[in-house]
């Protein structure tokens, strides 16, 4: 039988971590080949090309690493791979997957997975996650769906998934739209057609561009925004109260800074959209829009930061940034 060719690239993370003893703490050590060799039944669903790209804990991954992983995945597809699986740590997995989704233009599936338990822990989840991810990447109906995150036999669209628990194996969720599907008895099953996608491909990103993420909190006056601008950042995303609100003091600082750099307001709640026309107090969404702020709609602050970074890093003008964020405010519109 001719099984589809799936390229598995390992970036590090808990899924490849071992420890010398119980007190030493786990470190990323296992190679991609060691990871796939430990998965029962993998050879029965795909021909695997395994390659170790990095061995890093996911907090140490950076934008350049993600772009390098994208380039590797594109080379694998050009060489004939029917799908791609990347393994990494879960701490930054939602961000890596979203940035890849913004840039991935191939019809072949790109699936990101990891583990919440180390390979030597009781009930290690890494092998099952790799098996499910490869099954998803090898399945024909996964094509043209962009980047997926597969964990705990659940398929999430990269644009919506988030890590919602620090330690549980059921940590990943998609609070806006729910999971895209499940892997049942080794077979991916999708609940709905692919969601409308946004992609941004306009040249090689400038890695010197920096976008700050600032969370507002009780008593905040906006002085942090001044510090961010003074530090040379090129854009700011504010994880704001509720549906996109800040204090009166912070609103005034936003108005003063908007001529210098784009400021995007998102919700810090973890679910739900920013508002557009409900509240009118100083620091409300109506007031901040009048002052020149942009709003991220249904897109959460961490992903809004990545989208703004990509826009600025590829030279998008201010009006193009505004248009890009408009996409995330009406999910029911048709391309």
UniProtKB/TrEMBL annotation:
<dbReference type="InterPro" id="IPR027473">
    <property type="entry name" value="L-asparaginase_C"/>
</dbReference>
<feature type="domain" description="Asparaginase/glutaminase C-terminal">
    <location>
        <begin position="210"/>
        <end position="325"/>
    </location>
</feature>
<feature type="binding site">
    <location>
        <position position="58"/>
    </location>
    <ligand>
        <name>substrate</name>
    </ligand>
</feature>
<keyword id="KW-0378">Hydrolase</keyword>
<dbReference type="Pfam" id="PF17763">
    <property type="entry name" value="Asparaginase_C"/>
</dbReference>
<feature type="active site" description="O-isoaspartyl threonine intermediate">
    <location>
        <position position="14"/>
    </location>
</feature>
<dbReference type="InterPro" id="IPR004550">
    <property type="entry name" value="AsnASE_II"/>
</dbReference>
<dbReference type="InterPro" id="IPR006034">
    <property type="entry name" value="Asparaginase/glutaminase-like"/>
</dbReference>
<protein>
    <submittedName>
        <fullName>L-asparaginase</fullName>
    </submittedName>
</protein>
<feature type="binding site">
    <location>
        <begin position="90"/>
        <end position="91"/>
    </location>
    <ligand>
        <name>substrate</name>
    </ligand>
</feature>
<dbReference type="InterPro" id="IPR036152">
    <property type="entry name" value="Asp/glu_Ase-like_sf"/>
</dbReference>
<dbReference type="InterPro" id="IPR027474">
    <property type="entry name" value="L-asparaginase_N"/>
</dbReference>
<dbReference type="GO" id="GO:0006528">
    <property type="term" value="P:asparagine metabolic process"/>
</dbReference>
<feature type="domain" description="L-asparaginase N-terminal">
    <location>
        <begin position="6"/>
        <end position="193"/>
    </location>
</feature>
<dbReference type="InterPro" id="IPR040919">
    <property type="entry name" value="Asparaginase_C"/>
</dbReference>
<dbReference type="Pfam" id="PF00710">
    <property type="entry name" value="Asparaginase"/>
</dbReference>
<dbReference type="InterPro" id="IPR037152">
    <property type="entry name" value="L-asparaginase_N_sf"/>
</dbReference>
<dbReference type="GO" id="GO:0004067">
    <property type="term" value="F:asparaginase activity"/>
</dbReference>
<comment type="similarity">
    <text>Belongs to the asparaginase 1 family.</text>
</comment>
């Amino acid at each position: 039988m001719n099984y589809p060719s799936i390229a598995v690239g390992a970036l590090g993370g808990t899924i490849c971590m071992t420890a010398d003893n119980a007190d030493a703490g786990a470190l990323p050590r296992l190679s991609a080949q060691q990871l796939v060799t430990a998965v029962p039944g993998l050879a029965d669903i795909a021909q695997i090309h395994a390659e170790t790209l990095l061995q890093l804990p996911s907090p140490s991954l950076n934008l350049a690493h993600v772009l390098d992983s994208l380039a590797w995945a594109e080379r694998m597809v050009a060489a004939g791979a029917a799908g791609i699986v990347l393994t990494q740590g879960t701490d930054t997995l939602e961000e890596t997957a979203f940035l890849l989704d913004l840039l991935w233009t191939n019809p072949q599936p790109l699936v990101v997975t990891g583990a919440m338990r180390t390979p030597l822990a009781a009930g290690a989840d890494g092998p099952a996650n790799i098996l499910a991810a490869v099954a998803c990447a090898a399945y024909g109906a996964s094509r043209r769906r962009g980047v997926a995150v597969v964990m705990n036999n659940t398929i999430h669209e990269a644009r919506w998934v988030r890590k919602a628990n620090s330690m549980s194996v059921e940590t990943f969720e998609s609070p806006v739209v729910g999971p895209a599907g499940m892997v049942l008895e080794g077979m991916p099953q999708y609940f709905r057609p692919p969601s409308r996608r946004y992609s941004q491909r306009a040249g090689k990103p400038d890695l010197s561009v920096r976008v700050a993420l600032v969370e507002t909190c009780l008593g905040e006056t906006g002085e942090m925004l001044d510090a961010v601008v003074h530090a040379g950042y090129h854009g700011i995303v504010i994880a704001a109260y509720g549906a996109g609100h800040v204090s009166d003091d912070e609103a005034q600082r936003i108005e003063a800074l908007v001529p210098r750099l784009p400021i995007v307001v998102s919700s810090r709640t973890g679910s739900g959209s920013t508002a557009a026309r409900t509240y009118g107090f100083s620091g409300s969404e109506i007031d901040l829009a009048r002052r020149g702020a942009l709003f991220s709609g249904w897109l959460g602050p961490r992903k809004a930061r990545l989208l703004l970074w990509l826009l600025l890093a590829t030279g998008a003008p201010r009006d193009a940034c505004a248009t890009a964020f408009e996409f995330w405010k009406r999910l029911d519109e048709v391309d």
